[in-house]
Structure formats: C-alpha cells, structure tokens
C-alpha cells in the first residue's frame, strides 16, 4: 500500500496568501492533495490538474492541521477509481484539501480562503 498524492505545483502562491493571513512556519514544498491509500492496482494519472478559483473553498481544521478545503470533481473521481480498485480510506467521506499549517487556536471564520488557481502535478505514490 502507498499514499497517492498530487503535489501542489504553485504552492508558493498559496504560501504568500497564508503569510498574508498571518500564518507562519510554512513548508510549501510538502504541500499536496491526498487522493487515497492505494494498493497500486489502479494506474496513476500522469496528467496535471488545474482547479479554477471557486467560492466554495473554506479554511478548516483537519486533525492537527489547518487546511484549505475545496471541491474537485476530478479528484473525487480519481479517489473513487482507486477505491474501486481496492484502495483504502480511513474516513467516512473524501474531502479534497491542502493542509498548510499546524493547528492553533486562531479563529478561522474570519480568514478569507485562497482565491487563486490551484495547480497540481501528476499522481505519485509514496510512503
């Protein structure tokens, strides 16, 4: 089993936004969208993926992290394809997101979500 992710290719733009919202201690080189935990049966998608700005984005806490949550039919379809091929997911639903900061006690309702394009690279499998 390996973790299938898509690296965020324009992470520095998201980092600029996050710094403007008061976040620090950022590691943009590690930012990605997780697709699923895969058994390797489903072939990886080798194309890139660009998500246009969308008003349905939000900044949320996810476990120990703060994340930009967004909708993506493309990522949801890839998640479903990997799942049909035997992939594993520990959560009740698939919610595309990019975790970008360690969770702290700040009020997230006042933060305006990033409104630029999100550009993801091809799927990769790692540990």
Protein model, in words:
This protein is α+β, with helices and mostly antiparallel strands. The protein has one domain: Cyclic Phosphodiesterase, Chain: A (Alpha-Beta Complex). 17% of the residues lie in helices and 30% in strands. It is built from two helices and eight strands. It has helices at residues 11-20, 73-84, and strands spanning 2-7, 32-38, 49-51, 58-62, 65-69, 97-102, 118-120, 124-126. The strands form three sheets. It has a three-stranded antiparallel β-sheet. The longest helix has 12 residues, at 73-84. The mean pLDDT is 96.
Describe this protein with a few key phrases:
single chain; 127 residues; alpha+beta; Cyclic Phosphodiesterase, Chain: A; three-stranded antiparallel beta sheet; 2 helices; 8 strands; 17% helix
Helical segment tally? 2
Q: How much helicity do the residues have? A: 10-25%
Work out the number of β strands.
8
CATH homologous superfamily label:
Cyclic phosphodiesterase
Give the topology.
Blueprint: E1 2-7, H1 11-20, E2 32-38, E3 49-51, E4 58-62, E5 65-69, H2 73-84, E6 97-102, E7 118-120, E8 124-126
Antiparallel strand pairs: 1-2, 1-8, 3-7, 4-5, 5-6
Give a quick summary of the entry.
The protein is of the alpha+beta class and 127 residues long. The chain is built from 2 helices and 8 strands. The protein is 17% helix and 30% strand.
């Amino acid at each position: 089993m390996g973790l299938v992710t898509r690296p965020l290719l324009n992470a520095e733009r998201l980092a600029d936004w996050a710094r403007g919202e008061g976040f620090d201690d950022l590691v943009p080189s590690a930012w990605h969208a997780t697709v699923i935990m895969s058994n390797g049966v489903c072939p990886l998608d080798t194309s890139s993926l660009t998500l246009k700005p969308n008003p349905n984005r939000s900044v949320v806490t996810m476990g120990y992290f703060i994340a930009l949550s967004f909708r993506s039919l493309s990522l949801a379809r890839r998640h479903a394809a990997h799942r049909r091929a035997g992939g594993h997911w520990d959560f009740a639903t698939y919610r595309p997101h990019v975790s970008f900061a360690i969770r702290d006690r700040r009020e997230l309702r006042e933060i305006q979500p990033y409104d630029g394009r999100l550009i993801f690279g091809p799927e990769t499998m790692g540990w």
